[in-house]
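Sample A.
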Amino acid sequence: MKIIKVGEGGFPTIGKALSHVKEIRENAYAAGSPTASPTACYDQSVVRNKEESIVHAENDMSPTACYDQSVVRNKEESIVHAENDISPTACYGQVEDIHRLAPVEIHIARGIYHEHIDITEPYITLVGAGADQTVITGSLGGYEILEDGLKRGTFRTQTVFVHTHDFTARDLTIENAAGPGHIVGQAIALYADGDRLCFENVHLKGFQDTLFTGPLPAKEVEPGGFRGPLEHAPRINGRQYYHNCTIEGSIDFIFGSATAYFKECTLVSRDEYRDELVTSRRDAQVSPEETTSRRDTQVSTEETVTSHRSTTSTSDKTSTRNIPPIRSYVTAASTPEGQKYGYVFADCTFTSDCPAESCYLGRPWREYAKVVLIRCKIGPHIKPEGWHDWGKEKSHDTALFAEYESRYEGREVDVERGMRRHLSSDEISEYEIEKVMQFCEQ
């Protein structure tokens, strides 16, 4: 295990440390005359291979070990059938000589790092000095107008971009400090797209669209809506694991298509109107009313925030005279049709500084969204019905919003109300971490 240090006598920035890792590996490949680069698997020009490929799994990890890259789980070769499609494991098996990719840990000293980081190399671990000690921060917002006259848009705002497999981050904070969504637009802290991504004791902080769990949906509603680094990339589902993490945001702050397991995490719905509300109350001018919101041109009548994810049109900012009654949607899953798992939250806590019954657990960004809550503690900020259909009538038949032994703080809630489905003790066994995180190894 190679260890590289950032700060306190090491590299001055995380970006320089990552460039050093890439340089070391490129030199190793040059010396060994490799047939492909380690990042070719996730290159946008990747060609689907219908042949069987052998994956050398010497560095394969178990999800229950947080995919710790220093743990060797399996030294046998395994055959992956990649007929007509790219599976996360088959893909990188086709192009990598894993023996040349020694795991690397980058130890980041305490401090605030104003960087935008791209991680495209596998078998890398970022280790901070603690979630309250090491902070990686950016401040890009989707409403920003760029030199070409277009808005930056959602998928070019991320502070940290992960597009690889077998990556781990622990004991640090990743934030997008651009500001509230109704002022700056969408602002991603972490854009995570890949297989076997693990986040342990990580604090993700933002407002609208804090965490994007790629891949993107198959198609945007309006041209240019997915403008960003993976707009034209293959949509390859991967597994992501979040343990003991705190994730903060306001509108749809966990969204995307991945299979993601959240274990013992804290999900914090932030009231991005709190300061405005205090000011407007003092001036006796508040008159909350329900207006429209859109994402992918789908209209809801529950919020004021204009939330464009797959659109490039201009929108007006919300004023203090029009503060929405709905402050937060925790999730906006876009699980593809036929994918067995979407989001699973196990033993998590949902909390907030928002008013009582002013938030939803989630809504479907796409009609086959899947979100399951297991033994979660849910604060009074969540509305009794729990879930919203975002104006998508079909989602009542196609989406899965399910709970098992949810504990609603200070109240009794009808577990069959609205779109919510109650899971039985027999059904819950299908959502054990071993099954969710290993299902695509078949």
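Sample B.
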Amino acid sequence: MKVRRFHLFAMLLAFVLVAAACSDDESSDTEAPAATEAPAATDAPAATEAPAATEAPPATEAGFAGTIRLGAAVSETGRFAREGKDTRQGYITWADWVNEEYGGINVGGERYEVEIVMYDDEGDADRTASLVEQLINEDQVDFLLGPYSSGLTMSASAIAEQYGIIMVEGNGASESIFERGFENIFAVLTPAGNYTQSALKALADAGAESVVIAYEDTAFPTSVAEGAIRWAEEYGLELLGVETYPLEVTDVSAIMTKFRDLEPDIFVGGGHFNDALLFVRAAKELDFNPQGMVITVGPSNPSFVEEVGSDANFILGPTQWEGTMSWSDEWFGTSGDFYDRYTEKWGEAPTYQAAESAATPLALMVAIENAGTLDMDAVRQAMFDLDIETFYGPINFDETGKNVGKPMGSIQIQDGVINVVAPSEAAVAPLEYPAPPWEDK
């Protein structure tokens, strides 16, 4: 495999610029389109342009035997800009750690620095496919990291599979990603079908008897909703209604009005951050008062409380990771250690999207070190063989590339604080149920 060498300082400067300029979903649920001409590197912000190739100093002077180049198309603008920022910052947190503290990736006894080339996919599946092809053919990356969202991951992974290059991702949870027979896609996060399991079990145990479900008609929310229907049946919850809405919806009042009249105990909303805001605001405006609300991709983000204030209280959300969880590893330490590291670096608390984005290249790093080579076939087998505990949780891939080792948690916002309430072994606070009317929150 061709390994290109670049100055460490140039790479670190690029990382600083990215930070100065500044985990699901879908622009498309289909396979990636036929390859189109990729945009020139100048289309991307300067901070994410691939640095010009230069000859690296000898290993005795540079301290590294060479450079392992990773590539990613990640939203900096567009509908996933908020989650894309978390994804980029997670990748950079890992890269800075591996180069500055860990001493580079150990490949057969030699240390390699890491460079990550990132471009703005603008939340568009066609652009994502073009950028991934550009990363492979022009930037000549050795491995790929995933974008944010299941739809963009579907697109990016199709190109990776076409070229036989491993792509590790932490922000595409839809099961449909792993149902295509691909052998080069690996995901560290818990699959979307399990997102609502622990929350619905906790609510059913607390006395809830009925549920309604609304979800965006794209890959990730569809997987979440299908899972919620399955878990509702398993836990004896009567399903009173299911509604879908289109991509980039701006008004959910019709759905919430219909659900209000059904008087369910639980509302489940499957979508993304902006959808979560729409659900809460419409429910309050229409005086729709379910005793439990479970909303994906929103409540676990500290920005959600900032956006809706006390209306966020009592709302539950699935979480891939929280800083209070008990996971730990030999690389980043405990979940709390990673939380502190990230907060100090970026001046804000890590979302679970940021944590899983740091865990994504960490899994690739361990596989490379276990393989002792950069040979794609050897690293791929090492990925399939991986079975490790990390600050983010267990990572153990099945034959499709899904992480089957990691459970999903649930948080509830209580007096403005995000607390893990399920499963019981991870909880730091008891579930508060039933929720009071909006005016009493």
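B remarks: The longest helix spans residues 81-100. Residues 411 and 419 are 5 Å apart (CA to CA).
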